[in-house]
Amino acid sequence: MYLRSYLNSQSIMAIINDIVHSDFIEAMRDGTLEDDKFKYYLVQDHVYLKYYKEAGSRIQNTSADEVIRKLYTDIGSDEPQFHRDMLLKFNVDGDSIKDTDMNYTTYSYINHLIRWSRDSDINGMLAMFPCQWSYGYIAEAVAGPEEKFKFWFDFYRSAPYRSITDRYLAILGEQELDEYQEQIIKFGLEYELNYWIACYI
Asked: Is the pTM of the predicted complex or chain greater than 0.85?
């Protein structure tokens, strides 16, 4: 099955629907999410992004495909600054965040990224894609978020963010997935779902 078709499959849509309607996302939409829960999310995201960038750098440095290398030259150039702005907005000291602050889901998700980025550029991209795709999907699916967290939805539905997703799909969209590659995508989305669940507890 090709990636574009797999993303629209019943099993994948069931996971993405659970993400969109998770307690964390719905509380962000309603503006009722407690600051402490959002700060906890920021801590997990801070650790995650360090290894997300490591996985991307590995793909960039080993891929023979110039289009893939260019994508990973550009990827992350906006989000890290956006992340730093969120840390500042919610008074979280990013310099004090350590790997030991990560929870089990973040730890497992990071190892998933690193494992597949070491395997091949395509499999590494497939491991990274669920984060990129699901964040944009969430932002587009949630209409009229309250002002408190509107900045988050606005960033992930922005044209620059969508352009990165489009570039992923231009490379991967016609990729015919084997069973392992379907599992990489599915596990990635399940990590995303568990990530939101763990950040709300």
From this structure: yes
